[in-house]
Design brief:
The complex is a heterodimer of chains A (about 100) and B (about 500).
Chain A: H1 5-14, H2 21-38, H3 73-77, E1 83-84, E2 87-88
Antiparallel strand pairs in A: 1-2
Chain B: H1 6-14, H2 20-38, E1 41-44, H3 46-62, E2 72-76, H4 103-110, E3 114-119, H5 153-160, E4 166-170, H6 177-183, E5 186-189, E6 210-214, H7 217-225, E7 262-266, H8 276-291, E8 295-299, H9 307-322, H10 341-352, H11 355-367, H12 373-394, E9 400-404, H13 420-425, H14 431-436, E10 440-447, E11 453-460, H15 465-478
Parallel strand pairs in B: 2-3, 2-4, 7-8, 7-9
Antiparallel strand pairs in B: 1-3, 4-6, 5-6, 5-10, 9-11, 10-11
The chains are: A mainly alpha (about 100), B alpha/beta (about 500).
């Protein structure tokens, strides 16, 4: 498998990472090297093997539906790039 | 005093030979003197450390001190520390003063440990050399032209250079064990689920696990004992009683203290790929284990070589999902100039993330994208099952598995930084352990041809931490590799 510049550009858009044309070739070359390594996986027949998503077989814990956290909005918004009146500011999304 | 073990420091504090404030000052002064050459710390918190030390002195005076009260330590900068800069080695979090403490940080604060600062690391814990830090590479204290290993390179270098007695780290594919090996110290990654991941900035959540660094297995045991325990804020935290790993080390002296211990040697770890000087050191160390009464048996991990390809699907997949939270809205870097919302995301992320982090996000995005999920992600998860089963089969024939931690000693700064695949392959002996979720430990086992430390890795079954620490401790009682120090630590 070998990725094209178009494919790399598409992945970068999906990942929301701006990639300049100047960076595209170098990024593609490095990604193709990584995928060459990853392709070694395909040599193994894993038919019938149950995928393992996690080291421990855990059931999701449930807890009573109670308020457990205090309001710490001011502390959390102190680290935000832009806030106003307790709201996070972002570029206008809906005209 | 800088080379004292934690039990020795405990005695010195308890007998008022020195105060916690004096001890913290001693190490803070060493950081001031030696950190400029090593770059092991991103943040030094002198004021916070001295305040914590004063509180520790009060506890000692009141007779309520615990094992770690007044003991200085460093946290890898992946752990959120309230009121202190927490960067995760990234420009993305270059201005992030955490509003809360990680669970590990809370536990160690409650134990009275004194945090001197935040250790440098590969950005978002992605790397094996600590060259991927936005705050500059860390230097190996044994030879400052060499890498300290990664991703917890700052923690390992700080302990090796005695800038701090012990430090925390995290290990997703070897990030505690490999830098411990490269820096000539002891490091343990416990079983997945034993230490809460709450407040530990996520890389690959099904693999990430916090661990401990110290000069010896005994120091690691004391630190790890204070880090484990159930935490309801981590959905994968295990509900099991905590263990006192340090108490488990105590045993009457015996001529053959490891009598009955069966050590499995995986054929695949001793095949080609291991450097001759590493092999020689490991063989000598295994002879020592046999002299202490252990027996060795060959075992096989037939799918071990597939651990790296499987890891580089699973870890990037989880990373691409975890790191989607860095969007320049609620915290972290936001680009100065942008148009619409999508443009703000893309530019903020392009500017905030370094090259290796971007590569792993891109790989993860691809393997999870429509049409590729089965071929990559599910195949990797099936291999993960086979790898975990290999360990269980091998552990039918032995109590612990041993081998080299790394194929070579520490390489030169810059040697692999432009070749991600070569960097990935250096983690061949450590990655499979994370995929299985097993505990692993690395301890010093001599030196290579270039005078750099060699690490021996011990791998155990789930929750065999005490057994690993015990075996390493017995080895360290009979040898002095762990007591060797780089220049400048007298």
């Amino acid at each position: 498998m070998s990725l094209s510049n178009d494919q790399v550009g598409h992945i970068a858009r999906l990942a929301r990472i701006a990639l300049s044309d100047a960076e595209l070739d170098a990024t593609r070359a490095k990604l193709n090297g990584i995928f060459e390594l990853i392709e070694q996986m395909q040599a193994v027949d894993t038919k019938g093997v149950e995928p393992m998503s996690h080291p421990q077989e855990l059931a999701t814990r449930l807890r009573p539906d109670l308020v457990t956290e205090p309001d710490r909005r001011d502390a959390f918004q102190k680290v935000a790039p832009q806030t106003e009146a307790g709201l996070y500011l972002v570029p206008k999304v809906i005209e | 005093m800088i080379n004292a073990s934690l039990p020795e420091l405990r005695r010195a504090l308890d007998t008022r030979q020195l105060s916690a404030v004096e001890l913290a000052s001693l190490f803070l002064d060493r950081i001031d003197a030696h950190n400029p050459g090593l770059n092991a710390f991103i943040t030094v918190d002198r004021d916070g450390a001295l305040a914590a030390a004063r509180a520790a002195d009060e506890r000692i005076a009141a007779g309520t001190a615990g094992a770690l009260t007044g003991i200085p330590l460093a946290h890898k900068d992946v752990f959120c520390t309230e009121g202190v800069l927490t960067t995760c080695g990234s420009k993305m979090l270059g201005n992030f003063v955490s509003p809360y403490d990680a669970h590990v940080v809370s536990l160690l604060k409650a134990a009275g440990a004194v945090c001197l600062g935040k250790a440098n690391m590969d950005e978002f814990a992605m790397g094996s050399s600590n060259e991927n830090s936005a705050f500059g590479a860390v230097k190996n204290p044994w030879n400052t032209a060499r890498v300290p290993g990664g991703s917890s390179g700052g923690s390992a270098a700080a302990v090796a250079a005695r800038l701090v007695p012990v430090a925390t780290g995290t290990d997703t594919g070897g990030s505690v064990r490999q830098p411990a090996a490269f820096c000539g110290i002891t490091g343990i990654k416990p079983s997945y689920g034993l230490v809460s991941r709450y407040g530990m900035i996520a890389y690959a959540s099904s693999l990430d696990q916090a661990g401990a660094f110290g000069a010896s297995a005994e120091d690691c045991a004391l630190l790890l004992s204070a880090m484990t325990g159930f935490d309801e804020r981590d959905s994968t935290s295990l509900e099991r009683p905590t263990e006192d790993y340090a108490a488990a080390l105590a045993a009457p002296a015996a001529a053959k203290p490891l009598e009955g211990l069966r050590i499995g040697l995986p054929r695949e770890f001793f095949a080609e790929g291991m450097a001759d000087d590493v092999r020689a050191a490991i063989e000598t160390a295994l002879d020592q284990y046999r002299a202490l009464g252990a027996t060795t048996v060959e075992v096989s991990l037939p799918n071990a070589k597939l651990a790296i390809p499987a890891y580089y699907v699973i870890a990037p997949a989880e990373c691409s999902s975890n790191l989607s939270r860095f969007d320049g809205v609620r915290y972290g870097h936001r680009a100065a100039d942008y148009g619409d919302l999508a443009d703000m995301y893309s530019k903020s992320r392009a500017e905030g993330f370094g090259a290796e982090v971007k590569r792993r996000i891109l790989v993860g995005t691809y393997v999870l994208s429509h049409g590729y999920y089965d071929a990559y992600y599910l195949q990797a998860q099936r291999l993960r099952r086979l790898i975990a089963q290999d360990f269980q089969a091998a552990l039918q024939h032995c109590d612990v598995i041993a081998g080299p931690t790394t194929p070579t000693t520490a390489w030169a700064l810059g040697e692999k930084s432009d070749d991600p695949v070569q960097m990935y392959l250096s983690d061949i002996y450590t990655i499979a352990v994370n995929l299985a979720g097993l505990p692993g430990l690395s301890h010093p086992a001599g030196f290579g041809a270039d005078g750099l430390p060699v690490g021996l890795q011990l791998i155990g079954d789930y929750f065999a931490e005490a057994r690993l620490l015990q075996a390493a401790h017995r080895f360290q009682q009979a040898t002095d590799w762990h007591a060797r120090r780089p220049a400048g630590t007298a």
